[in-house]
C-alpha cells in the first residue's frame, strides 16, 4: 500500500491539468519514533525466527493469550504482543503500513504523542479479544501482531485525511476513508460469524484498534477543552493561594513592626519562611 503525490506537489502540474495527472508512489521520509518501532519489531521477529525454541517461550509469555483468567490479567501482554508476529507476510504488511502512515501522524502530533497513540490502539485491540473470549464468543488462542496499532493509525488517518489516495496492493487507487471502512466491515463480518473465519481473534484486535484510533481523533477537541479548563482551574487556585499568602505575610509583618519578631508563633514564622523562599525562587527565574 503506497501514497500518491498530490497534484500540486509535482513540478509539471500545469501541463497535467490538460492531460491528467501522472500518479506515482511516494516513499516518505522516516521519522524517529517510527524508525524505532520498525527496528524493534524486525529485531524481535528475527530473534524469534532464528531461534524456534525461544519463539515458543516468547509467544507463551508475551502474546495476549486468555487461556485462563490469570493470563488475561497479565497486563504487560497488551503491549508486548504488539511486537510479535507470526510470519514473514504478517510482519511485512504491518511494517509497510507503519512506514507509510506512521511518519504522517508523528509529524502531526510529535514522537511521544504518536507513540502513546500507537500503543494505546494496540492495547485496546488486545483488550477486546480476551473480552470476547471471556463471554464465550471466541475461542482462546495466542494473539500477536501490531495490526491493532496499524489499523488504529489507518482509522485516524481516514478521519484526518479522508480524501488521501492510496495504492491498495500497489495497484488500485482508493481513497483512504474507503479503505478504512472496508477493513472495518471485514472485521465486523468476521466477528459476527467467527466459526466461518480462521482469524476472528485478529479481527477483534483490528476492530478494537480502529475504534480507539477513531475515538482519539474525534475526541481531540473535547480533550483539548478539558485540558484547558483543568489548567485554568489550577492557575486560578495558584493565584488565590498566592493572594492569601500575601495577605497573611502583610499581617505578620505588621505584627513584627508593632510587637517585634519575638511575638511571632511557630506557624507565623513558618509562613514568613515560606514567603521568603518563594520570593527567592522568583528572583532566580
Layout: helices, strands, pairs:
Blueprint (H helix, E strand, L loop, with lengths): L1 E3 L8 H7 L5 E2 L5 H19 L1 H11 L6 H4 L4 H4 L7 H22 L1 H24 L12 H14 L4 E4 L3 E4 H17 L7 H19 L1 H40 L6 H19 L1
Antiparallel strand pairs: 1-2, 1-3, 3-4
Would you mind describing this structure in some detail?
The chain is mostly helical and 285 residues long. It has 2 domains: 217 residues, Rhomboid-like fold (Up-down Bundle), CATH 1.20.1540; 54 residues. 70% of the residues lie in helices and 5% in strands. It has 12 helices and 4 strands. The chain has a 4-stranded antiparallel β-sheet with strand order 2-1-3-4. Helix 2 runs antiparallel to helix 6 and helix 7 packs across helix 10. The longest helix has 40 residues. The chain is elongated, with a radius of gyration of 28 Å.
The CATH superfamily title of the largest domain: Rhomboid-like
Q: Sheet bearing the most strands, described?
A: 4 strands, antiparallel
Mean pLDDT: 82
CATH topology annotation of the largest domain: Rhomboid-like fold
Secondary-structure element sequence?
A: EHEHHHHHHHEEHHHH
Q: What is the number of independent domains?
A: 2
Class of the largest domain in CATH? Answer: Mainly Alpha
The portion of residues forming beta strands comes to: under 5%
Number of helices: 12
What is the overall shape? elongated
Distance between the termini: 52 Å
Please name the CATH architecture of the largest domain.
Up-down Bundle
How large, in whole angstroms, is the Cα Rg?
Answer: 28 Å
Helical/strand content category: mainly alpha
Amino acid at each position: 500500500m503506497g501514497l500518491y503525490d498530490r497534484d500540486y506537489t509535482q513540478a509539471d502540474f500545469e501541463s497535467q491539468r490538460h492531460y491528467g495527472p501522472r500518479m506515482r508512489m511516494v516513499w516518505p521520509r522516516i521519522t524517529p519514533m517510527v524508525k524505532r518501532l520498525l527496528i524493534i519489531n524486525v529485531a524481535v521477529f528475527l530473534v524469534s525466527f532464528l531461534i524456534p525454541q525461544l519463539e515458543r517461550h516468547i509467544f507463551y509469555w508475551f502474546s495476549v493469550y486468555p487461556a485462563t483468567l490469570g493470563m488475561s490479567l497479565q497486563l504487560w501482554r497488551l503491549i508486548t504482543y504488539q511486537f510479535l508476529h507470526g510470519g514473514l507476510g504478517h510482519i511485512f504488511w504491518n511494517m509497510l503500513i507503519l512506514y507509510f502512515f506512521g511518519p504522517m501522524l508523528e509529524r502531526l502530533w510529535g514522537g511521544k504523542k504518536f507513540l502513546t497513540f500507537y500503543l494505546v490502539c494496540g492495547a485496546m485491540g488486545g483488550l477486546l479479544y480476551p473480552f470476547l473470549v471471556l463471554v464465550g464468543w471466541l475461542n482462546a488462542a495466542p494473539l500477536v501482531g501490531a495490526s491493532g496499532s496499524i489499523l488504529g493509525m489507518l482509522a485516524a488517518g481516514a478521519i484526518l485525511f479522508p480524501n488521501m489516495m492510496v495504492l491498495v496492493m500497489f495497484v488500485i487507487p482508493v481513497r483512504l476513508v474507503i479503505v478504512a471502512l472496508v477493513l472495518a466491515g471485514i472485521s465486523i463480518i468476521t466477528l459476527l460469524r467467527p466459526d466461518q473465519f480462521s482469524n476472528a481473534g485478529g479481527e477483534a484486535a483490528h476492530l478494537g484498534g480502529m475504534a480507539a484510533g477513531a475515538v482519539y481523533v474525534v475526541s481531540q477537541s473535547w480533550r483539548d477543552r478539558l485540558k484547558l479548563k483543568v489548567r485554568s482551574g489550577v492557575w486560578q487556585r495558584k493565584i488565590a493561594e498566592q493572594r492569601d499568602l500575601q495577605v497573611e505575610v502583610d499581617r505578620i509583618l505588621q505584627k513584627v513592626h508593632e510587637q517585634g519578631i519575638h511575638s511571632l508563633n511557630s506557624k507565623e514564622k513558618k509562613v514568613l519562611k515560606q514567603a521568603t523562599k518563594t520570593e527567592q525562587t522568583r528572583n532566580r527565574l
